[in-house]
Write a structure and sequence with these properties.
heterodimer, A: mainly beta, five-stranded mixed beta sheet, elongated
């Protein structure tokens, strides 16, 4: 067997806040295309555009969901001056979803989608906020308690991440949380390590999920299992005569 | 009536056979790719012990010849499947379609782990065979077959002149099957578990990964598609799948029956060496025959013209 070189995806296990304005490993932003038309996509890393693409949203016949790995995108091709037909193109249907996620690495990305004809009409600018109708998902792996905050309105929710159970682990589960005006619904959710929380935004939102209390990785010993040892009394001391 | 009769005692015959037997070695290695896993072996063996019995029915019985493994490595390689978090789909109200989350994977590819434990000291096998004694004429003018089946087995050098050669020619052979003891299963499982565990960081990360893959022991069994008895599975591999047992049997047969004579007699045979300016005296050997008796091997031959 040919020995492959494999690397551990360390970014998955580093502890940091997850933000909708800076997409990193374990976060995903979903944009919902509600109108047909031509759009332009800009992906930025560290403020610089690393990828541009045209998105054509048609009435029918195209795919319903497209997930784009921002870490796997090539650097932007020079197509700005002359050949507007060149470059990457994505075709989607009305009411389809385009997801943006980061599979690996430590880079933070932002995504901008604008109408080609009216560039001032931005459908999405993730660095500023998640527009209503869009979704932000975070997959949490470190067991503990997390706080989710909408920095636009100050709403808060608590997410408890349970350690996985080896005997009964089901992969690929997700919980939906609505991010409304002034509050999350529900305000408390419980998931298992490796599962996801998907925030559906009803108002413009700037979401941040951060670890506030890491769970102990090893179970605490039970109180009734504690055993106290006492030293036996030593031999009586001899009094000086 | 033969012109010459030569007898070799059973003790002498045994010493000659021991000399030949000690020179038998076999080594081989192979690796077979089964997609999600690889299996192979790297082995080296020699022969030891055994008893030699010349019998009245013109046969030679070799009993309980020990196969001693100098190296009996089993190579097992696993292609650990993708270990990912996330994924799954979530139902959304109309008109938004159901949304499927991407999977984020722990490793940049499917990691490989490989072990090659050596079970040389744990496996014991014996060979027994009964054969006849065969006399054959080696003519140096006749070229060797190509390819030469004895090329890797020949320990007795090829003669530079014609010879009568006497071989032990096995007719039937008993060869013990590979039978790995119970401890081998535990050793393999422990070694594979250690190799997979070494890939995974400790603490809660390990807990998560082990939960995803459902435990290392189960993962290994699932990948290799092996039953409860690893040692039985391994024995079958060596006995059947690798074809090693047949191969060893054939090699031992060829080694004694056709590649290495136990005795050889030059033709012509020198009875007086060159001396005082005179050429050596050599007699041609014709019609050589060999028989086994209860206590000795008897060679009879004519002196030709």
């Amino acid at each position: 067997m040919h020995k492959k070189k494999v690397l551990l995806n360390r970014a998955m296990f580093s502890i940091r806040p997850y933000e909708s304005s800076a997409l990193t490993v374990l976060t995903t932003l979903f944009h919902h295309f509600t109108e047909a038309g031509n759009y332009e996509l800009f992906v930025r890393r560290g403020g610089a555009v690393i990828h541009r693409a045209a998105i054509q949203v048609g009435e029918k016949g195209a795919q319903q969901q497209l997930n784009l790995d921002l870490a796997a995108l090539r650097d932007t091709e020079a197509r700005e001056c002359c050949d507007k037909e060149a470059g990457t193109k994505y075709a989607l249907a009305v009411n389809s979803i385009m997801g943006f996620y980061v599979s690996q690495g430590t880079g933070a990305y932002s995504v901008e989608i604008a109408r080609t004809e009216h560039k001032e009409r931005r459908a999405l600018d993730s660095a500023a906020h998640v527009p209503p109708g869009d979704l932000f998902a975070v997959t949490l792996v470190r067991p503990g308690t997390y706080r989710a905050v909408n920095e636009e309105g100050g709403a808060e929710a608590l997410i408890r991440v349970k350690p996985p159970d080896r005997k009964d682990y089901r992969a690929g589960e997700a919980v939906l949380v609505t991010c409304g005006a002034g509050a999350f619904k529900p305000k408390r959710v419980e998931i298992t390590s490796g599962h996801s929380v998907v925030f559906r935004c009803e108002t413009p939102a700037r979401l941040r999920v951060e670890l506030v209390d890491a769970a102990e990785s090893a179970p605490r010993p039970r109180q009734e299992m504690r055993h106290t040892l006492r030293r036996s009394p030593g031999p009586p001391s001899h009094k000086a005569t | 009536m033969a012109h010459l009769t030569l007898a070799v005692s059973e003790a002498t015959f045994k010493r000659s056979f021991d000399l030949l037997k000690r020179n038998f070695t076999f080594q081989d290695s192979d690796l077979q790719d089964y997609g999600a896993f690889t299996l192979g072996y790297d082995v080296k063996m020699h022969l030891e012990g055994g008893s030699v019995d010349l019998r009245a029915d013109n046969t030679v019985q070799i009993k309980e010849l020990d196969i001693r493994w100098d190296r009996l490595k089993v190579i097992i390689g696993l292609d650990v499947p993708e270990i990912c978090v996330g994924g799954g789909c979530i139902n959304m109200p109309w008109p938004v379609p159901d949304i499927c989350l991407p999977k984020i994977c722990v490793f940049s590819g499917d990691p490989d782990v490989s072990i090659s434990p050596d079970f040389a000291s744990l496996v014991a096998q014996e060979i027994s065979f009964t054969g006849s004694l065969a006399a054959r004429y080696f003519d140096v003018t006749i070229p060797l077959p190509s390819p030469d089946p004895c090329q890797l087995l020949r320990v007795v050098p090829l003669p530079g002149n014609n010879q009568w050669q006497i071989f032990v020619d096995p007719q039937t052979m008993d060869l013990d099957l590979f039978d790995f003891p119970d401890i081998v299963g535990n050793l393999i499982e422990d070694a594979l578990t250690s190799a997979v565990t070494a890939l995974i960081p400790g603490g809660w990360v390990r807990d998560l990964i082990l939960a995803i893959i459902g435990g290392i022991a189960d993962l290994i069994r699932a990948i290799l598609d092996i039953p409860d008895d690893i040692e039985e599975w391994l024995s079958d591999l060596f006995n059947v799948s690798f074809g090693l047992l047949d191969f060893i049997g054939t090699l031992v047969l060829d080694f004694f029956a056709s590649c290495n004579p136990i005795y050889s007699i030059d033709d012509p045979f020198e009875i007086l060496p060159a001396a005082s300016g005179l050429i050596p005296v050599r007699i041609p050997i014709r019609n050589l025959s060999v028989r086994a008796h209860d206590l000795e091997m008897v060679i009879q031959t004519d002196v030709g013209a």
